[in-house]
Amino acid sequence: MSDRLYGKDFKWRSSSQDQYIGEVLQQWVGTPYCSNMQSRGVGVDCRLLIAAFYDIMLHRAIATPIRRVPPESGRNSTAAINKAVGDIIRGFDVENVTQQRVVFAGDALALRIGNESSPTHGALVGNQPGIIFHADMVAGVTMGSLMDVCITAVYRPRSRFTW
Question: Which residues contact 136 (CB under 8 A, 6 or more apart)?
Fold first, then answer.
């Protein structure tokens, strides 16, 4: 049995907030990819898309301070990216719910890409079964399939049900 978990291994559950979550995420679609940026319609990267979404959903008046990833680290430096994604997760009161094997719209995902041994990408679960939202380096913020991504962790805000 493989120790890798894929989107198809998780059940998607609906909640009363799905429509609103979908509306918030949809506003980011088409925003170009830009490392270390968090501006809807202008530029965002995968980790700051998660931070921006949680700032909106948790009604934060001041954006969460995020450590910048050095430009020279690039996509291949999983250590630098993981540290930056870790800063985002620690900036919110979230819990790791990976072992539950259930995802809700708005959950943050740490994803493994290719043969990498640690998470190298972040995404958000969409408001429809099997859909994720993420900032792609070529396409910008786009919708993708949850089914075939390799998931290393699922994070959910503890205050999720009070959105």
Answer: 33, 142, 144
Beta bridge partners of 48: none
Burial of 57 (0-12, 13-18, 19+ CB in 10 A): buried
As a whole number of angstroms, the distance between CA 34 and CA 48 comes to 10
- Class of the CATH-defined domain 5-162: alpha beta
Indicate yes or no: pTM above 0.85.
Answer: no
70: amino acid identity, one letter: P
What distance in Å separates the CA atoms of residue 99 and residue 10, rounded to the nearest whole number?
A: 10
- Angle in degrees, CA 158, 81, 133, rounded to 5: 55
Ordered by start, the domain boundaries in the chain are 5-162
Q: Sign of dihedral through CA atoms 120, 152, 13, 93?
A: negative
Q: What is the pLDDT of residues 104-144, one digit of tens each?
A: 999 999 887 766 665 578 899 999 999 999 999 999 999 99
Write the Ramachandran bin of 61: left for phi over 0, alpha for psi from -120 to 50, otherwise beta.
alpha
The burial of 133, by beta-carbon neighbours within 10 Å (0-12 exposed, 13-18 middle, 19 or more buried), is given as buried
Q: Please report, in angstroms and rounded to a whole number, the separation of the first and last CA atoms in the chain.
A: 38
Rg, Å, the chain Cα set = 14
